[in-house]
C-alpha cells in the first residue's frame, strides 16, 4: 500500500541517544533481562507484537517510535513493521503499530516506543481538540514553561500535526524547519520601566521586520488604555495585542461593569471592551490574542458567545489527561499465542514501513 500523505520523518531528526537505548538504559529492566535471557539461551522466536491505544485520540509519536525501532533494534532488516501515521484518528483498541521479527531484536525497546506514543498522543489530541473548538481561528501552542525542556521538540511537532498555527520555541518548531513565535513579554516591559509603548517601539527598532509585533497589554491592568496607546503610537506596524490578565485580577475597564459578568481574568466583556475601543479609535485591523487558562471548554464558551477573539494562546491544559498504549505479543512463529483477553487484531489502515 502506497501512502500519498506526509512523508515520515527521517529517524536522524530525533537525535536519539542510540547506544544507551540499545543498551537498555532507558528501558524497564525486565525487558532488558528478557532480551539477555533469550540471547544466553540461544532462543530466537519470531513474534508478532501489536500496539494499541486505550482511548479515542489523534495519534502522535508514531514516526518517533519507528525511529527507535530503526536505529536501536538489533537488526532493523530482520523486522517487518506496519504502522499508522501521526495525526491519524484512532478508536480504543485500534492497532497503531505492528512489529514482526525475532523477539530478542526489539524486546528492550517496548518501554521507549510506548512512552513516546503516550506523550505525543496526549499533546496532539489535546491540541487538536482546542483547534477544533476555535476553528477557523488560530491556536498558539504556549505550554513550554509547564514541562521539562527535553520534551519540547516532539511536543511541538505533535501540536503542529494537530493544527496549531504557531509554537513558542525554536526547539518546538525544529522538526519541520520553522521557528518560535511570541509577544513583547511582561519582563521586557518591566525592563523599560513599565512603559509598554516604549518596549514595543524598541522591539520594532531592533527586531527583524518580518517578525510580527504582538504586545502584552495587561501590565498596568488597563488593557483598553494600553491597547489604544500602542495602536496610536505605532500604527499599522502593530499586528496585535495580547490579553493575559491574571485570573485573580479585574481589569480597569471591567470594574464599572461588575455584577453583569464574571469579572476576573480574560473574560468576554474585557475582549469586547478592547475590540470596541480599538475599532472606535480607527484600529480595526489590530488583532486580539487571548491567553490565561484557556482550554476546550473556555474556548467553546467564547466561540458560542461570539467573543471577538482572533487567536487563542493555550498552555498547561495541553498536557492534561492520559492516553496510554499497550503492546502484546499475539503471534509466535505465526501461530496465536497471547495472554488471555488479547489476540491478533486486523487493521487495514496499517502501512508497511520501509
Can you give me a brief rundown of this structure?
The protein has helices at 18-23, 29-41, 62-72, 110-134, 152-162, 170-173, 186-191, 196-206, 223-234, 268-280, 296-304, and strands at residues 46-53, 57-58, 80-83, 89-90, 95-102, 138-141, 166-167, 213-216, 238-243, 287-291, 311-314, 325-332, 335-336, 351-352.
**Tally of discrete structural domains:** 2
Number of helices: 11
Q: What would you call the shape?
A: elongated
Main sheet: strand order: 13-12-1-5-3-14
CATH superfamily of the largest domain: Aldolase class I
The CATH architecture of the largest domain is Alpha-Beta Barrel
The largest pleated sheet is described as: 6 strands, antiparallel
Q: What is the overall pLDDT average?
A: 95
Approximately what portion of the residues adopt beta-strand conformation?
Answer: 15-25%
Uncertain segments? none
- Helix and strand run: HHEEHEEEHEHEHHHEHEHEHEEEE
CATH class category name of the largest domain: Alpha Beta
**How many β-strands, per DSSP?**
14
CATH topology of the largest domain: TIM Barrel
Q: Ends: how far apart? A: 11 Å
Task: Outline the structure in words.
- By secondary structure, the protein is α/β, with parallel strands linked by helices.
- It folds into 2 domains: about 140 residues, nicotinate phosphoribosyltransferase; about 180 residues, Aldolase class I (TIM Barrel), CATH 3.20.20.70.
- Helix content is about 35%, strand content about 15%.
- It is built from 11 helices and 14 strands.
- The chain has a 6-stranded antiparallel beta sheet. Strands 7-6-11-10-9-8 form a 6-stranded parallel beta sheet.
- Strand 10, helix 11 and strand 11 form a beta-alpha-beta unit.
- Helix 3 runs antiparallel to helix 4, helix 4 packs parallel to helix 11 and helix 9 runs parallel beside helix 10.
- It is elongated, with a radius of gyration of 25 Å.
Amino acid at each position: 500500500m502506497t501512502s500519498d500523505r506526509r512523508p515520515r520523518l527521517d529517524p536522524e531528526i530525533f537525535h536519539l541517544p542510540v547506544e544507551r537505548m540499545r543498551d537498555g538504559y532507558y528501558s524497564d529492566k525486565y525487558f532488558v533481562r528478557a532480551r539477555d535471557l533469550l540471547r544466553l539461551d540461544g532462543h530466537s522466536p519470531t513474534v508478532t507484537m501489536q500496539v494499541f491505544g486505550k482511548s479515542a485520540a489523534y495519534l502522535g509519536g508514531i514516526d518517533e517510535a519507528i525511529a527507535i525501532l530503526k536505529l536501536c533494534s538489533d537488526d532493523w532488516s530482520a523486522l517487518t513493521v506496519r504502522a499508522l501515521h501521526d495525526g491519524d484518528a484512532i478508536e480504543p483498541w485500534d492497532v497503531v503499530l505492528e512489529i514482526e521479527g525475532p523477539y530478542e531484536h526489539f524486546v528492550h525497546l517496548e518501554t521507549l516506543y510506548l512512552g513516546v506514543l503516550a506523550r505525543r498522543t496526549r499533546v496532539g489530541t489535546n491540541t487538536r481538540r482546542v483547534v477544533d473548538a476555535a476553528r477557523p481561528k488560530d491556536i498558539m501552542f504556549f505550554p513550554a514553561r509547564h514541562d521539562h525542556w527535553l520534551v519540547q521538540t516532539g511536543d511541538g511537532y505533535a501540536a503542529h500535526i494537530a493544527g496549531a498555527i504557531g509554537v513558542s520555541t525554536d526547539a518546538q518548531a525544529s522538526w519541520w524547519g520553522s521557528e518560535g513565535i511570541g509577544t513583547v513579554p511582561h519582563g521586557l516591559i518591566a525592563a523599560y520601566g513599565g512603559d509598554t509603548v516604549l518596549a514595543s517601539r524598541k522591539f520594532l527598532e531592533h527586531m527583524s521586520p518580518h517578525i510580527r509585533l504582538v504586545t502584552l497589554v495587561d501590565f498596568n491592568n488597563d488593557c483598553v488604555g494600553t491597547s489604544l496607546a500602542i495602536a496610536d503610537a505605532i500604527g499599522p506596524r502593530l499586528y496585535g495585542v495580547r490579553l493575559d490578565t491574571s485570573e485573580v485580577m479585574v481589569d480597569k475597564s471591567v470594574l464599572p461593569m461588575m455584577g453583569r459578568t464574571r469579572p476576573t481574568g480574560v473574560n468576554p466583556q474585557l475582549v469586547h471592551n478592547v475590540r470596541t475601543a480599538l475599532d472606535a479609535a480607527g484600529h480595526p485591523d489590530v488583532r486580539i490574542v487571548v491567553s490565561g487558562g484557556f482550554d476546550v471548554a473556555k474556548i467553546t464558551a467564547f466561540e458560542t458567545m461570539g467573543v471577538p477573539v482572533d487567536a487563542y494562546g493555550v498552555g498547561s491544559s495541553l498536557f492534561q489527561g492520559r492516553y496510554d498504549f499497550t503492546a502484546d505479543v499475539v503471534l509466535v512463529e505465526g501461530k496465536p499465542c497471547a495472554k488471555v483477553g488479547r489476540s491478533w487484531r486486523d487493521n487495514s489502515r496499517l502501512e508497511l514501513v520501509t
